[in-house]
Design goal:
CATH architecture: Roll
Strand content: 15-25%
CATH topology: C8orf32 fold
Structural class: alpha+beta
CATH class: Alpha Beta
Oligomer: single chain
Order of helices and strands: HHEHHHEHHEHEEEEEEH
Shape: globular
Low-confidence stretches: 4-47, 240-244, 250-254
Largest sheet: 7 strands, antiparallel
Radius of gyration: 19 Å
Number of domains: 1
Length: 254
Amino acid sequence: MGCQMGIFACSRALRALVFACGVVWVASAAPAGAATLLSPGPAVLIKKSAEPFGLATTILGEGGLRDKWLGVQRRLEDEMVQLALCDGDREGCASLAALKFLAIVDDARARDGRARLGEVNRAINLAVKATSDLAQYRQTDFWASPLMTFASGAGDCEDYAIAKLVALRLAGIPNEDLRIVVLHDTVHGEDHAVASTRLDGRWLMLDNRRMAMVEDSDVRNYRPTFVIDQSNVMRYAEPSLLAYAALRLPAQAD
């Protein structure tokens, strides 16, 4: 499919270095011996955050990504009203897209925990056909709201992610446990967006490319670049390789 987003500028030199060193997405079960290669200095420069992947972030006050998210939020204000009206009166609802979307929310509401998240991930993956923005909107990077996506039955990665975020919210997941994460595919050189939700203190990735949900600590060959919550668009910090590796290692007792 490919989900290229030209607005994300990354350092090619750092990207190549990270990939060549083979430490991109080191699993949480990294060899304990790796700790002997680290001096304590760099590891304490970047504190582990509560965001997916545990990396520090900075809030973006401007930029193309922030503008796109604000545009989505404006459309969502109208769509949430329409969804609420249709939710209260299914027979009188004139929007087929809203009814399809609410059917997924209904199935999710009937489940708990991981099963609720998995229901939304699988159902939206199956309901939407992977299609590029250029083919559908004649634009290289258009972020659609859920009812736009369900009306056409097609979308690309960020459209899946936005629809999942809203469906999970309507199914009862708190806003503080919902994110959209933008990742850079270090193998194919593309940017990719996924929904992410926190369950029992762990962040799960809801990806349109797979039915199974994966924890952030188990993601391979992707580097997180941006994360979006209800209020902010944030850029992930780019720590030194040693500091990043330290964040992935289990905490050591004093």
